[in-house]
Protein: Phosphate ABC transporter
Organism: Streptomyces bungoensis
Amino acid sequence: MTARTVIDVWVADLTFPGYMDRLHRLGAEFEKAHPEYRINIEGRDFRLLSQQIAEAAEEGRPPAVAEYYFAVTQAARDSRGRDGKPLFASVQKAIAGRSEILGEPVVVDDLIPAVREYYSVDGDLTSMPAVVTAMLIYGNQTVLDKAGIGSLPTTWDEIEAACEAVAALEGGPSHGVTWSNHGLFFQQALAVQGGELADNANGRAGRATRLDLSSKEMLTWAEWWRELHSRGHYLYTGKIPDWEGNIKAFADQDVALRITSSNDLNYMAMAAENAGFEMSVGRFPGRAGEAYGGNIIAGTSLWLANGLDEVTEDGALAFMQFLNNPRNAADRHIASSFVPVTRSSYRLLEDEGWFDAHPSHRLASAQLGSYAPGQGEGVPPCRGALFGDFAGAQDVMTRAMDDVLRRGAEVAERFAEATAEAQALLDAYERDRVGNGVRDPQSLRVEYFRDAEAYTGAQLEDAVKGSK
């Protein structure tokens, strides 16, 4: 019997119940259709995965397919093997215009534009999107109705008004709104204002060399956040990022509003059902009187190792397409509320009546404006920032905001300090990149928040049960 070609696939184990089981089932399904291959899927701690990939590459044994968090995209592009060559090949160039690989239809042209743009540079799709999320606002509509708020806030001013109405309720929630102190919220707040984190169009028109964490848009967001907190409307748990504590506050009805990822949609619905209140969902609010600039995405993508033999490379590429075929992408959305990554997967869910039965699940997709040709394209903030040590810069933002909220630091002064600190991280990254081609695993640091606790899907499930 001819030996099977092994495709090593290293992914982030996101710890949600059933998440890895589903990936292993898909690997087995692919093997059944392609018995000449064996898909070896390994789930790794998402905080350590990029460093482990770098270490494996230095030993000359990188996986054929490697998953990276979106904030590590520039580092993945910069990575070099021990021979000095790029560690990863462009997915688009490897596909080379083919419409199918090993009988698996190529889906890259079906990807939603906002997602394809994020993982592309100069039109070249360098990696294959896997997990995609967007930002949403969630409401305890039962409480909001009692407060006379018939629909979710669409602007920051409306959030304030809703919080004031909730505060006036007899026996109502202790606070009006909460969200985690996490880099995603800074990015989204900049995007809706048309702001950027880095020069050269957020690192898209050229390599980012300067960061600005004290831009007008950043200070506007941080000052509004501080004021909301000082007036007792915003609930800050005092932890970074404390996803668990924030969702528990919503489940316990200690807040009427929570802003968080679309990835939390299933858990938020579970919290509302367990506590017996109606939940409403809307897009991330913008600034009153200003055009809505755009929406960032978060999630992960799959990178193809450079220098694979043709048989291994085709197997890896075919598996990437298989993971994102309409059925599998649709099922990933149903299981985990991740955004359907292709137009075809969205249409399949629509045709099957999923969105009619679960209308709130349409919102993350609609927010990206991505399911009709020409929509969701050409908005720079949607492409997101691209620069080295993105994870470290987000660390800097959250610690600065923590100082503002808990220690009373002055916003402009503290975020000027944060800019200098983040710039030093970027400068160090660039020096290291030039010096050794980003082979040092420390250059791929992805604890993401060095002072943050990890959490698991099981912990979130416990949190949504509530304690009242």
